[in-house]
Specification:
The protein has 206 residues and is α+β, with helices and mostly antiparallel strands. Strands 1, 2, 3, 4, 5, 6, 7 and 8 form an eight-stranded antiparallel beta sheet that branches. It is globular and about 55 Å long. It comes from Thalassomonas haliotis.
């Protein structure tokens, strides 16, 4: 199995941290409150274990926004919330506590897809800028349901291997008790392309 050096892991985490920091600032303006971020973690693991880790973090029933990105390296970027918290995020975005539940539900998909679009593009844009690369990103897709089903249906990046690179970063809006998870999942070929870029960009030699 491909392994990342400590330097490569730190590089991926720091690059994602920069992008997520920008995205968190945008989200903070939208919800008028501080957005707390965790330190990103970067691990290579078997695909089913990656899904287990995600389920342990956000629960089995999730709301997800996914973007597939393609370029020198490629993969799937997911923004995930516990399904039970997604309406709270919509309330925070709309700044309207009194809206009826049916109206919130109607706005849920559009609002969360927009949030996902902002956050995922900020992170991918940060990677593209640092590496001086361009990505083609599919339109963000919204899904809701069991974690296993969402990932088994949508994990198009894992085309040829059981191992994936799982990048995780948690964020939270304490005032609304909302916690989310950003993940990037890439297959072995994409991981190799990413490590080559890191080595080239930062002058590292294998």
């Amino acid at each position: 199995m491909l392994e990342l050096t400590e330097f490569q892991q730190d590089a991926v985490a720091e690059l994602l941290n920069i992008g997520m920091g920008k995205a968190a600032a945008s989200l903070s303006e939208m919800v008028k409150q501080k957005v707390d971020l965790s330190i990103p973690s970067v691990e290579i693991m078997l695909r089913h274990l990656a899904v287990d880790h995600i389920r342990d973090t956000v629960g089995n029933e999730v709301t997800a926004v996914k973007e597939t990105f393609k370029g020198t390296f490629w993969g799937d970027a997911f923004l995930l919330f516990p399904e039970s918290q997604s309406l709270e995020l919509v309330r925070a975005l709309l700044q309207e506590d009194g809206l009826p539940l049916d109206m919130l539900s109607e706005m849920e998909q559009e609002a969360l897809t927009e949030v996902g679009n902002i956050i995922l593009n900020a992170c991918l844009g940060s990677l593209a800028n640092i590496f001086e690369q361009s990505f083609h990103c599919d339109l963000p897709r919204y899904a809701q349901g069991a974690c296993d089903i969402i990932f088994n249906r949508n994990l198009v990046a894992a085309r040829s291997a059981d191992a994936v690179l799982l990048v995780r970063m948690n964020f939270s809006l304490k005032a609304n008790n909302v916690n989310g998870l950003l993940t990037l999942m890439m297959d072995v070929e994409s991981m190799q392309a990413l490590t080559d870029l890191i080595n080239t960009t930062f002058g590292m030699i294998d």
